[in-house]
Every structure is written in C-alpha cells, then in structure tokens.
Amino acid sequence: MTLAGSDLVKVGSKLRRSFGGKSDPFVVVSRKNPSGEYMSVWRSEVCYSTLHPTWSCRLPLQRVCNADLDRPILFEIFDWEKSGSHKDMGKVQTTVRRILDLPSFNIKHTKCNDSSAGTLKIQRAEIWKIPSMLEYTSGSCEINFMAAVDFSASNNFVKRFHRSESSGSNFLQQRYKLSSESLHFFSEVGFPNEYQAALSSIGSILSDYGCHRSAPLYAFGAKIDGHSDSIFVVPEIDANEGDHNMRRMLTSYKSAFSFPGLEMTEPTLLAPVIREAARNAKLMTIENEQAYSVLLVLTDGKIDDVDQTIDTLVEHAADAPLSIVIVGVGGGNFEDMMRLDGDEEAGGCLVSSEGKKCPRDLVQFVPFRKYSKTMSHLTAETLAEVCLVPFCFCFFSPADENSP
After folding, report:
1. With CB atoms counted within 10 Å of each terminal CB, which end of the chain scores lower, N or C?
2. The three-state (H, E, C) secondary structure of the chain, written as one string
3. The model's pTM
C-alpha cells in the first residue's frame, strides 16, 4: 500500500495552513478491536520538512484487520518532535474494502471544525494472496527449528567451591551450583523452570509444523574451560531413537550444567547467535530450496550488544529464510528485546547503524511471565508469529518461485 498526504496543515501554537513552514509527518495505522479500542499495527518512517509526504508499507491482512475487509481502521498523522511529544495533524477512519478503491480522504482534525486538515490519497493498494502455512508444509516446504538459551551470569548463577582430591593431592576444584533464585534452578519435585516451560511449550508448536530434523541447541553467555566463543552448541546426549526432538533438547539443556568446565559469565552477546542461525538457515536451502528456519531465543533480557545485534539482523538475517522468536524469561528489563522486535521503531522496522532498513519483520518478542499462568496464551502468541512465516518466506524470494 502507498499513501500520499497533500496540503497537510502545519501544527503550531494555532492550527493553520503553512505558507513556507514545514512539518515532519509520520502516520500510524491502527485497527479497531472488538472492545472498541484501536490497536496500533504499523508506524511509518518520518518524512522530514514536507507537507506532502509519501509512505509505503506491506502488511499481513491478518494484522491490519483480522482479514475482515469491513473492520474499521484508523490512519493518524503526527508531526514528529524530538522530545517525543508528537503533535496531532489529523486522522482518517476507513476500511480495507474502501481503500482498495484507491480513494482520497479529507483529513479530519478537531481544531479544523468542518474544514479539511489536508488530503490522504491511497495511491496503491492490493491484496497479495500468500499460501497458508498448512499449504506450504503439505507441499515441499520444510520448517526447521533451532533454540538458543541464555547462560549468562545475570541469570542469578551462584559460584561455589569445594575441595577435591586428584592424583594424590588436594586442590580447590571450581564447581557451580544453581541457587533456588536462579532462573535456571531445577526443582527436586520436577516442576519446570521458566526456560524449560518456554522451550517445551513453544517447541511443541513448531514440531506440529514438521520440524523433523535434529534441532540444535545453542548456549550463549558462558565459557567452557575458560574459553569464551560467545556461542557453543550444547551436545546432544544419548537418547532413545523414539524420543521426540523437544525431549532430547530439554534433556541436553539440563545436562549442560554438569559440564565440569562450564562458567556462566558476561558479557552477554546475542549477535553471534543470530549470525550462526542465519548461516544455518541459508545452508538448509542447499538441500531444499523451500526450507525455512525458526530460531527460538530464551533470555533474561540483559544483552551487551544490542546495536551490533540490530546490525546483524539487518545485514545477515533479513535475507535469510529465518524468523526469530525471543521469549523474555524472568522479571527483568526487556527494553532491548522490544527494540529488536522493531514494532515500535520508526517505519515499523529495524535500522542498522549505517542507516540500512530491515525489509521485513523477522523478530517477535514475547514476555514469558505475561502468559505463564496460561501456557495456551504463550503458545497462541508464538503461533501467531509462526503463521506469518509464509509472509516472510515470500519476502526474501520471488513469489512465483515459492509456490507450495
């Protein structure tokens, strides 16, 4: 969809038409929920120093109107301010069905009374039919699953020392023990910690979509025998041939804490994880051109390379057949994770340090504790992201080459 504003009204101390002044307009698109409230689904980039802006977007119909062409949607135009106190420039309420007729709308503003605050023209609008996830997986598309777990010291990992004997002499051997306050603490009665619960719940969804390969489990934020490689693969322990991938992964996750050389440290670097996942996702397409990968990242939210991670997402992952679901574990600060999600960024997309825009939405952040009381809600949130895989799949490769 392409939108164009014309003769917008400049916002000042008084609402007035400008004869030389300029504004920095951007538009927010929202859909009306059954409750009657509007929920933002997309925010455009800012068009600086103009009263004749143009914006373009490509959005899933499910997100815009829940596939209901007659559901009200709202366009709100604002004048961007560095302080964050953006000024209202007017709004338009319409539906997708009307938008498809490429109309022009008079922009309404409360201070304009019956007069128009400008015009919003729909220059281009079309619905692009994308095969469903079921159609893809019933065909030749293969969905592959990867997971990465945050093993950093910020997960409340407590260091312990004990004396041990080796080769006839005593020495202090460094061992680690999880305190009951640790996010990785394993209950003696078998109650899963948040990492186990999220991994099990979300992994079971992905397995329903045909994840049959052995799923790799990565760890980041830890050292092995004093060496920090930023990321390492947790070895898969011996398992019964009939064991489900998720059961193997859960067992491997727990066994990682018995590694004698394991040391949970800082800094916590996520960029190497994203880079490795993107590399593996591209390698999968050598065997199957319609292979698609989903990376699940479980973290307490504290990372030390958020800017480098954004650069990696834009430069290395955006063109890979990959979607990323980040689950925030614990009650920490998840501002960095919401930045990686990108929904609140200008234009609704990530922008690298060099100004390059991410062409698609490839990261979805879900806070675990928000849905922990009802795991079905967590799975529903994740399922919503997985169901957008066909939309992402068609983003990085021509549609005619991606028929199921």
Report:
1. C
2. CEEEEECCCECCCCCECCCCCCCCEEEEEEEECCCCCEEEEEECCCCCCCCCCEEECCCCHHHHHCCCCCCCEEEEEEECCCCCCCEEEEEEEECHHHHCCCCEEECECHHHCCCCCCEEEEEECCCCCCCCHHHHHHCCCEEEEEEEEECCHHHCEEEEEEEEEECCEEEEEEEEEECCCCCCCCCCCCCCCHHHHHHHHHHHHHHHCCCCCCCCEEEECEEECCECCCEEECCCCCCCCCCCHHHHHHHHHHHHHHCCCEEECCCCCCHHHHHHHHHHHHHHHHHCCCEEEEEEEEECCCCCCHHHHHHHHHHHHCCCCEEEEEEECCCCCCHHHHHHHCCCCHHHCCECCCCCECCCCCEEEEEHHHHCCCHHHHHHHHHHHHCCHHHHHCCCCCHHHCCC
3. 0.68
